[in-house]
Amino acid sequence: MVAGLTPNKLSSKQSADLGKMDADSLWHGMAQHKPFAQKPPKCIQSGSGCYVTDADGAEYFDGVSGLWCVNVGYGRQELADVAYEQMLNLSYSPLTMSHEPGIRLAHKLIELLGYEGKVFFSTSGSEANETAFKIARQYQAQTAPAGAGPRYKFISRYRGYHGHTMGALSATAQAERKLKYEPLVPGFMHVAPPYYYRFGEGQPEDVYNAACLRELEMTIRYEGAESIAGVIVEPIISGGGVIVPPAGYLRGVRDICDRTGILLIYDEVVNGFGRTGRMFGHHHWGVEPDIITFAKGLTSGYMPLSATVAKQHIFEAFLDEPGSDRHFRHISTYGGTPVSTAVGLRNIEIVEREHLAERAAEMGEYLMGRLQRLLDHPHVGDVRGKGLLLGVELVKDKVSKTPLDDAGVMAVIKSCLDQRVMIGRNTNTIPGFTNVLILCPPLVITREEADRLADTLYQAVFALAPA
Ligand SMILES: Cc1ncc(COP(=O)(O)O)c(C=O)c1O
Question: Could you say which of 82, 170, 443, 459 would form a disulfide bridge with 184 (CB–CB 3.0 to 4.6 Å)?
Fold first, then answer.
């Protein structure tokens, strides 16, 4: 029990008092607050393994790992111990100098990636992507032929999410996330995602893949390759609705980038650290990026930490004598603190020691198998994903594929919640298309827990009246 906080299970008076304080002072993201006056959001008091417990003592299976981040599960004593010891030993030191946990974590990331490069730490996925954009622009400026104009544009895919800050939001191609915040940063443009279920079905996968790549190539040609700094993709689109690309897609994007001098940036903020059944999402296809970004599973949410890793040839364009302006003029006060990097390092040690990527592959396959019977329901159009990143697309009917309305999608989520199972969906993404349920449980999920998740979802879906 932390001093100053109430015990985990609250009396009804304590709960009501806390609810009032919440309503009086806390602004929650992604939420309309009006109903909170009557019913404040659930107050989560504790977590262990795949479960969280609210202030009334009700325990929930967390099928979304918080915000897709608690890869190793809640309540790990050794992560708390590492943070505690590191806080006493060296609570803070900036990376304008150096410190051991930062050095060791950077070294570990490079080792895991399997190529030479340099790691820049920040605190969130959005910042990691902002950092990638700045590295890409500066790299392009410092390697441009004499007289060339700036390569400043970025291409991302519709449905992709890359963060909430102005640059990362500009790369995000989800109209509802941008509503009322525009105009955003100039120079960000989008192409269609490789979304086989909606746009490819009925065609051989390679034919569809070629069409997706042609669109990217033509966009680059129309815009002028010499004006484009980078292409940013999640290997598997996660929050945009769990979209797994065709087998040849990343290879094709890589080839186009190589031909045009455009940098390929992978956003592995969700995909990374075992989530998709490999240590990194791109390992499924063996295609390396120029720059890669991590957050979430990097510390399993135990500390705010993110990383942007540039390959060595990118980094070398920043080398020069002191006094020149070629160095990276970018700094984050809390990026890569001794405590967050020590926790990140131990978190990766747990992922490796407990073979959590392999476990995600095995449990993901099992869960995917159990979810297949959902397809017997007329409102289930597709079940897809890799590892423990799975999506269930709900439609009015399987022929038109019209997305199921909000009321239907919410009924499924609420029905699961009534059984104390939390699942996610692609909230506030594409107008009219927030119809993909998302399962993203901690990688420590057991077979019994996977059964519970699958059975609960089955009952919730089959409670929907067919249209
Ligand atoms: C793929 C992806 N990139 C970037 C972000 C932004 O991360 P953060 O919320 O830590 O800024 C997210 C967050 O959900 C994400 O899913």
Answer: 170
How close are the terminal C-alpha atoms of the chain, in Å? 50
Any alpha helices (H) in 73-194, and if so which ranges?
A: 77-89, 100-113, 125-143, 166-171, 175-178
> How many H-runs (helices) and E-runs (strands) does the chain carry?
14, 15
Binned at pLDDT 50, 70 and 90, residue 3 comes out as low
The torsion of the CA quartet 154, 317, 344, 125, rounded to 10 degrees, works out to -20
Query: What gap in Å lies between CA 269 and CA 312, rounded to an integer?
Result: 21
- As a whole number of angstroms, the distance between CA 277 and CA 261 comes to 31
* Identity of the amino acid at 405: D
pLDDT at 365 exceeding the cut of 70: yes
Q: Which two tokens stand for residue 405?
A: 């309305």
Where do runs of H (alpha helix) occur along 224-331?
249-260, 312-316
Give the span between the Cα atoms of 349 and 386, in whole angstroms. 22
Residue 1's pLDDT is 53
Q: 3-state DSSP call for residue 376? A: helix
